[in-house]
Every structure is written in C-alpha cells, then in structure tokens.
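Researcher: Let's try something more involved. This one mixes different molecule types, so please make sure each is placed in the same coordinate frame as the others.
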Amino acid sequence: MGQISSSVTDDVMTTARKAKKPGVNERFLAFLHLAPGMSGFIIFVVIPLIASIVISLYRWPLFGDPKFIGVDNYLRLFDGRTPVFGQILFNTALFAIGYTAANLIISTGLAVWLHSLPDWAPFFRVLFFVPVVTPMVANALVWRVILDDRGMINGMLAMLGITGPSWLGESGWAMFSMILMSLWQGVGYNIVVLAAGLNNINPSVLESARIDGTSAWSRFWTITFPMLSPSLFFCTIMTVIGAFKVFTQPYMLTKGGPGDATNTLVLFLYRSGFSYDQLGFASSLAWVLFVIVMLVTALQFVGQKHWVEYDA
Amino acid sequence: MPKPRIKWSRVLSKALLVLVGIIFFLPFVWMFFSSLKPSTEVLSSGSELFGSRLEWANYLEAFTAVPYGRILLNTFGIAAAGSLITVTVSVLSAYAFARLRFPFRDQLFAIFIATLVLPLEVLVIPLYIGATKINMVDTYAAIVLPFAFGAFGTFMLRQFLLSLPTDYEEAARIDGASQPRLLWHVIVPLLRGPIAVVAAFSFIDYWNAFLWPLIIINDQAKAPLQLGLAMFSGERGTEWGALMAASSIAVVASLLIVVLMQKQLAKGINLGGFGGR
Amino acid sequence: MKSTKILIGLLAAGLATSLAACGGSPAPTNSGSNAAPSAQSSQMYTWISSEGDRAQWQSFVEGAQKKDPNFNLTLDGPSFQEYWTKVKTRMNAPDAPCILTTQAARAQELKDILIPLDDLAKEAGLDLAQYNEGMIKGMTVDGTVRAIPYDAEPMVLYYNKTMFKDAGLAEPTVNYTQAQFISDAKALTKGDVKGFALAPDPGYPYLPLAFANGNAPVKDGALALTDPAFVADIQWTFDLAAKEKVAVAPNPADTTDVPMQGFQAGKVAMIIDGPWFYTSIREPMKDEVGVAVIPSASGQPVGMIQGSGFGISAKCPDPKNAFANIMKITTPEVVAFVGETRGTVPSIESAIDGWAKGKPAGDVEVMKALLAQGQPLVTTPTWNQFVTQFTQYSSDGTRGNKTAAEILDTIQKSVG
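Model: All components are placed in one shared frame. Result:
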C-alpha cells in the first residue's frame, strides 16, 4: 500500500493520536491496530507463561513466602517421590486416546448419517450440540446420579434382567464411564464441524460413484473420507488437546477414584496447587502437560502427510 | 417425475435416529424429574422416576439457597462483555496481520498462533498469584480479561479477510475514509459471518468457564454459572433437589442460547471452511 | 519495532523475576496502640455459600446483640469446600478480615495464619478452662491455643426407632457393643433397606468407629495410619459392606450427606453423623429417630469430638479488638443460644442445658456420655492429602478389592 496519494494519507493520519509527518507510516498504523490485542496477549499470556516456569522452580505456598528449590519439583516427579505420577500419565493418555478415537468414530458416523437425511439434519445437529453448551458441572452431576449403583442405568438394566456393574466404583468401569459421559458431551461439537466439511463435498462425485455400483462402505472410504480429511484432522487435533486437559469430569464424577483409576494430570495439578498448597509443584505439572500437548500436536502435524488430503 | 415411493430403508433410518435422539436426551429428562423429587430422595430413589411427591418448591429454593438469579445474569453479562472484547481485539489484530505490512509480521503471527495449543492450565497459577498481588481477586475484570486475547478469533478473521478482495477497501480509501470509518463501515460488514462465529464460540467459552472462576472467585454474588452450581454444597451437605432444579434451569438457558446462535454457528462454520476452535 | 520488542522482552523477564523475589506481602506494622478499632477487627472470614451457613453465623451475631445491641460483624467468605484454600490467600491481603473460623481438624493446617491466643486471653481475663477440654486440645498447635471453640460435637449414631421396634430389637443407648451392632444391622437389612450406610470420606464413619475403640490416626503430631489397631478398625468398617453386607459400598464421589439422605428416606436403619443434624432430622422424623453412642468393642466408646472456633489472622493490625469481638460471640449465653436455635452442641458445659431444652432426656444423656469420654480429632498439616486419598481408595476397600492394610500403607507412604 505504498502508493497511496497524500490526501488519503492525511485523512488516515487525522485519526492518529499524534500529529505525523506526511508520508505513509504503515508501521505506526499496524502498531495502533495491534496495541490492544498484543498488550493483552503479553500481559495475560506471555508474562504468565514465563512466570510459570519461574514459579515451578520454587516451593510456593498459598500463604507465606516462596523458597527457591531449583528443578526439584521436576525431579520429584521422576525419582520416585511421586509414585502416583506414572498412573496419572497413563490415565490421561488412556483417556485422551480412547476418548478421541471413540469421539471421531461416533461423530463421523452420526455426521454422515445426518447428511443422508437432510430434512431432519438441522434439528438433530442442535439436539446433539446441546450437551456441548450446557454446564459441565450440571452434566456431570446428573450423570453421577444416573450412574449410581442403584441409579437409572442399573435400574433399566435390571428390568432386562441384567445386574449392572458399579459404574463409578470399579476401576475399569470408572474410566469407561468417564469416557462415555465425555462422549455424550463432546460429539455434538465435532458433528457440526464435520457436517460443514461434508457439505463441501461435491454431491455429483458421490452420485456418479453410486451409479457405478460401488457400495456405501467403499464410497465412504474412497471418496468421503479423503475429502473430509482436513476437517477430521482439525477435529482430531482439537479433541486430543481438550482430552489431555480433562478436569471437570474426574473432579465431579469420580474424584480421581476408585483408587487412582481416574486421576488425571489437570486434576492432580489443581489439587497440588490449591488443596495441598504447593503452587510451585503444580506449575511444574502444568509444564509437563504443555510439553506433552506440544509433542502430540507436533506428531500429528508430521503424520498428517500420510492421511490428510488437501486437494481432494 | 415419477411419484416418490416410500423408501423403507429411509423410514428405518429415521426411526432409528429418533430412538438414538431419545436415548441421547435421557440424561436431561432425568435431570428434570430429579429436580421434582424431595432433596433427600434424589440419590436414594434409585431408578424410580418420581419421588414421594412433586417438589416444585425446589425451583424456588434454587433461587434462595444461592443467589441464582444474580448468577444467571452475571454469567450472561460476563460472556457478553468477554465476547465483545474478544471480537473487537480480533478484528483489529486480524486487519493488521492481513492487510498491513510491518517487520516481523509473519513471525509474530506464527508465535501468536502457536499459543492456540497452549493449555490455559499453564497460565492459571501465575495469573492467580499475579491477581492476588494487585488485589484483583474476586473481580469481574479478573474473570473476563485474561482470556479475551486468545489467538482463535484473530486466526479465523485473518483467514477470511485474506480470501476477500481489497476492492471495497480501496474504494473507501479513495473516497477519503479515515481508518475507524474504514473498519466500521467496510471491514466489519464484510466479516459479519466470521465475527458472529467468533462471538458465538467466545460467548460459549465464557458461559461454561469453570476452572478459572473456581480459582479466582470467592464471592457468591460474582460467581458465573458453573461455579454457582458448585455452591449448592455447604458445610452441612448438598441441597440435591435445588441443585437439580438449578441444573435444569441452566440447561434450558444454555439451550436457548444455542438455538438463538445456531444460525450463526452453522453459517459461520460453513463460511470459514472448517472453522471452529 | 525491533527495539519495542526487546523492551517488552526485558519487561517480561523483569516482571517474572520481581514476582519471584517479591514473595509474600510485607507484615503489617503492629503499633499495639489502643487507637480506634480497625474495621478489620469486626470482619470475619468464614464459609458462607449456602443459606444454612449464613444463618448459623448470623445467630452468633444475634446472640451477642442480646447483650450489646450495637454489636455487629461483617461476614464474608467462599463455599465450605473452597474455604481451606481461599482462606490462605485471602489472609495474605492487607485488607483481610481479622477474624477467621477454623475447624479443630484444620487448626494444624492453618497454624501459620492463626496467632496464639493464650496471652490475649489472659489479658482479657478469659478463662479457657470453661471450654470443653477436648476442643481446647484440638485447637492447640505447638503448645498454644489458636482458636476459641464454639461447639464440641461428638459423632453420634442415629437410628430409626420404628425399624428397631418392628424387628423386635432393643434400642441402643449409652452402651452398644460391636457384636450387638452387627447382629442388629443384619436383622434390619431386608429387601431395599440396609442396616447401615457408609460414605467414602474418612470421617463418615471410619474415624468415629476407630476412636470408639481408642484408636486415632494421628499420634504425637504425625500420621500413624499403619498402627495395627487402627488398621483393624478400618478393616472392620470396610467389612460392613464387603463381608457383612449391611451397607452399600459407596462411590468415591459420594458426598458425606448420602448416608443421611438414605436414612431420611427410610432406606437405611442406622447412620453415624454429626449431632449438628439433630434438629434438622427431628423435624421430618420426630420421635422416629433416636440417638445412641457409637458401637465399640467394649460397649463404652471414646467419643470423637469435632468442632469449630474463631481465631485471629497473623496479619491482623488490631488483635486486641478482634479478640474482644471473639469473646463477645463465645460467651456461655451466646453459645447456648446458637445451640438452641441451630442445634450445634455448645463448647461450654454449662451451656449444654440450653442446648438440651426440648430434647428427650435419653438423647442428652448420650451426648453427655460421649463428651465426657471424648477425644478431639487432632490432625496434621498434610491432613487434606489424607482425606482426599482415603476418599479415593475407600471404595476399593468397601468392595473387598483391597485390604485396609494395603490402602493405609499406600497413603502413609505417600503422605506421611
């Protein structure tokens, strides 16, 4: 934009807070535009980010003075003083992978199904989307009541003559219940995103394939899936990142139990910082989380070459 | 055109979908029926749909045990203010990144976008300590400001802006428009769709915030919705009936918001390609 | 723009290091003068999320206003669950309230915030001996009393009189052996109804049952969870669900009011809970509910006494006036008034008669017996971790998947 006439420049400059010499000062304009966003970004993201590393090098109680202890918080995680850490990492990874896989399969299935019934699709998309917006606390509470040993689900199973398990009291089932509840809450979001992706697929391509006599199953894999892969990739990334940060579900549904079966990284982080009064240690956990998320995301970006097609 | 025959596979498909929909909605149905049970029976009545009586008083209690009406209004206000700030900042930043040239522009943008994967859990502890030091704990500003400067809005709007021709803007410049006029009368209308998406997602993020308000807010009267629900537990136990009633109200409120916003969400996602967070 | 970026970078680094160097806020200057009382000495920080909580604190103020109509306290605070975290940060601020509440069980955890009150009490002429001995002991940390207790609540056994009558069983009173308890519970467990109920929290009812036999989780200020007698008691409690099947095995997220709810719904015959529910249970159930001592091996239990009190923050600029206010709300009259209206058992013996008004004589006798033979629940600064982990693990114990020895060993290693 360097060839703008000076009269326009003058008008632009009249809005500037300071008087300016004639001549385009695009940089200053950019500065003005970016000032609010960037200052907020620096104050609320960059500085806390740096500060959190600093804090993780301290023993920092809620009341009282912090004490510098170097990398001890990190050592503590890996040298055996925190025996539960291995379990926590395992749980978080298990949840992240299990939930993401199930979520993508279910939401893709539902999105494709709804796509085949276009007159009913909008209503059902809203229906599936409702749990995404309702407060997680309310959702978790009602699921606690439903999953109770003598709650609605076991009651309905009893009517069919099946004795339901203790959904929240047995280790394996507790993780399953957590994934199930999260799926109910999360698939709606991906369905909406995938529906948009499906809408962008040229229907005539599918039509000609159908006329050629291919089955629905092979049509899906050879046509729909590749064309949907950018959207799927996006959904995968966002779902996995969200899954690694799971907090409200274990906090409200299982408290991390039974035993430590559903104890996750962010739950442990929150407790360490705010229940056990160890903010420095909690910060180090936060950084472990961040590193894991970055690694996983980087891996996915590397892997996208193998299955994502942008010009289908 | 031949008369359409009944495709039985379609009928079956639709019937199955209805069944799936009903099962999917069951938890909310259960929530509603639980809200009509006396408090002590919510957990102990197992799989029975109704309690010993219809306790409509739970709904009244939801508003007296905790200042719930205030909480609902608060949450709406916080979400509205937050999404407004987010949109404003995003429009300005997106314009700069998309239309202006300045040194290190692309590098800065890359760093900015990298924070999309940054979990906010990393930030909550320093933000909390910082807030205690400047005595901003328990304020609305503390709930709204820290998360209004994320990269998502800027990313989405810049994406869209890049795909638009600059004709309108150049025409406006030639007509002598000043920068604010340019932004308000040309850019914003052009970006109406994506702005609605950014506003909608931002609104929902604030509406459902839990971890940060849990950490930073003590005063009941300032609590947003999720925190308010958690406040139904006192020293002497939880008011389950009122809690279920409050949850049902929260669900209905959230539902209304979604219904109102679904046009924006659907349209915006379509426009933005595969938008979303 | 480059220089701007460098500047910003330096600023960020500078801020970060100053944050670290800053540490806690500076201590207030303690002038010690008897100038006009600061506003903070009339402010109290406590747990206040629900109406029930607020009404309780208001009744203290009302009780004090009977003697001094101008008395007032400004109340502020988060929900009960969040209190133990928030109090630590709130008290950091220079404008924090002077008075804070604490449970005896958390006095250890808050020892850095609560200042010793012995000297203040002496100066003001307050006789600490009038308060329940167990409670004073519970509020003592490192040799000094940190809070003035307003209640002394021994855990009690609530039982459904109608169910006992229908089963033809004799009602327990001030004497109840474990053997008798199990036999009664079995007789009362039929169909949908269970003889007893458990929550995952250690206080409901693991600790009272251990206390009844004289076993406590803390010895000499340290966690002693692997003590064989304590382990045996916890195992006995687990077995109530796992072996004897007189109680439903709870889930880790069950709150402590789940057994109470079952009791009030008529699905559970006996529960162990705090006497603070006494008034609210009798409202719907009237004479159907009875109160008895906790079952013990010998029949004569040691009561587990919990309670709360008021203390003064270390950052209070005006401790003398704050203490004067505390004295006003912990007189025998006020404590009796609160006991009468809210059902809390007063911390002063003479006030118990106030609490006893309108209650059946047998119930009052049970309370007195438990108080007389009572020990306070003393904790450690890491108590929070113990409670959280026990809550997570107890569901494995009640289902027979793990033994008490295994669970307590794990917790002791991780927390002790």
